[in-house]
Each structure stands twice: as structure tokens, then as C-alpha cells.
Amino acid sequence: MPQLALKVIRPLVRASSVVSPRWTGRLAFRLFCTPMRHAPVNRRKANIRRAEALFATGKHSFVTHGCGFVKIVRFAPEGESRGTVLVLHGWTGQGLFMAGFVEPLLAHGFSVLVMDMPAHGASSGRILNFPIGVEAISAVVRGSQPLAGIIAHSFGGAVAAVALGGAIDAFAPVKAKAFVSIAAPAAMQGYGRQFSERLGLTRRGHQAFEDRVLEIAGRPMDSFSGRAFLGLSQPRALIIHASDDREIPIADAEELAQAPNARLMRVDGLGHRRILASREVQQAAADFIAG
Q1: Under DSSP, is residue 3 helix (H, G, I), strand (E, B) or coil?
Q2: How far is Cα 218 from Cα 216, in angstroms, rounded to an integer?
Q3: Could you give the CA distance from residue 247 to residue 253 in angstroms, rounded to a whole number?
Q4: Could you tell me the pLDDT band of residue 10, with boundaries at 50, 70 and 90?
Q5: Any idea which of 6-15, 46-55, 176-185, 199-208 has the lowest mean pLDDT?
Q6: 3-state class (DSSP) for residue 12
Q7: Is 215 helix (H, G, I), strand (E, B) or coil?
Q8: If you compute the radius of gyration of the chain from its CA atoms, what whole number of angstroms results?
Q9: How far apart are CA 57 and CA 138, in angstroms?
Q10: Measured in Å, how far apart are the chain's first and last C-alpha atoms?
Q11: In this predicted structure, which of 18-27, 91-100, 106-115, 186-195 has the lowest mean pLDDT?
Q12: Which segments of 183-251 are extended strands (E)?
């Protein structure tokens, strides 16, 4: 949220949080789950033009889930498929931004399924949280499990870990042999607290914020640990992260890499989003899925 808007909103949120902490905390959580501005698609960039050309060759369709529908693009390899790899973008992104991972996976003989997360890209919805994300993933991969792997960026990585760990009781764990996490958070509670502080919530307001998590997800916010979920599902896991990532610090990757069967691939100078355009990262992810 822009700093100018925060300066205007903070006093109002703090006052409301004192008078009606439950209502304000619940409203703040909805705002936390709402992608306010989506990353722009700059067609002047060569990688975006290549991505659109590649996506024109895929099979586009929509899959319905309980809260709406999501757009998916399927790619098939030449010859017999070695299995399906699900590719997920991050917060405010879209599947198009993950196009660089498709061709290396196809070269290894995998079918590839690229998804626009709920409230992103061409998918429906205005909010995205763990239950909605897991519900959408479960609908998309129905019939394709066990997946050969999942490659996921940022918040998409967090949602994938939740899905793998079966953390939302309404949905069976998603099964995948391998998982590549790129610039993903290890846990969300700290980011929720940062959001509350920036917004101006009082202590009681933030408690209502976290109570809302328990209400809709069926478990407290501090229980959402990517390391724990990977420990439950135990896929082979590659944690790729840039040391200069300013949105999700490298410490999150170090935490995730402590899960069983996980290892860390540290890269330099690629930040939080440029990392997706790295040929080294794209090839490493595909090679890891291929084993």
C-alpha cells in the first residue's frame, strides 16, 4: 500500500480498532488477502513477448472450484509424458510470468500445467488465502496425482506447501514427488503482524485478524509453517532464493531448507521477481524435478 495512503488510513484504522477491534481486524484480514495491484505485463520486454508466443501454443481452459474458476494452460511434451508438473506464480503475478520454466520441463519429457491463481490473471475472485488457493489447486490436479513435481514462486510456494501438507482439513493432501520453491516465505504470521503494524491495528485488532484465520482455515496462523508441511509430505525439495531478495529475506529459505529431503540453492543479484527470468534458475528447477 502506498505510503501516502497509509498516512491517511493509519489514524482511522487505529481509532476504529479501539472502538470495534473485531470488525476492524476482520476487515484488515480481508484487505491482507486482497491483491490490490497486479504486476503489469510489459509487452516491450522480449521475455514477455516470448512468453506470450509460447502460451499461444498451449491448450487454454478453465477449471471450476467452490469459489469460482481458474484459468490453466496445458503443455504436452513430444512422445510419452513422464508425469505432470504444476507451475504456480506468486502474489500479484500470473501464469504468464512463469513461462520460462515450461520449455526446460518439456525437454525433460514432462507435461506442464500453468495456473492463474484465484484473484489473479484470467481467474475469478477478488481475494486469495490458503483455503481458496488449496481448493483451486486440488480441483486443477484432480486426476493428475501423484504429480511429478510443483514449481512455485513466492506466495504460490506457500500455498503449495500448505496443499502438500494437507493443512486445510477439507482437502486431501496434494501428492507430488518433487517441489521447487522459489523466493517463498517460510511462514505467514510474521508478515501478518507487519501488515497489522503498518495499517495501525491495535493489539486487540490484530488478535481479531488472527482469529479470522482460525475461523476460515481451521487452524491458528502460527501453525502455518512451510518447513513443517514439507516435513509431513516429504517430497524432494529444492529451495531457490536470492540473497538480495527485499520482499522475502533469505532467512525464510534457510528455514525451509531444514525440512527433510530439502536443500538450498542460493543465487545472487536476482531479487524477488527477476529470479523468474534467470535461465540458470529455470534449468535448475527442471533438472531437479527430473531427478
Answers
A1: helix
A2: 6
A3: 12
A4: low
A5: 6-15
A6: helix
A7: helix
A8: 19
A9: 25
A10: 41
A11: 18-27
A12: 236-242
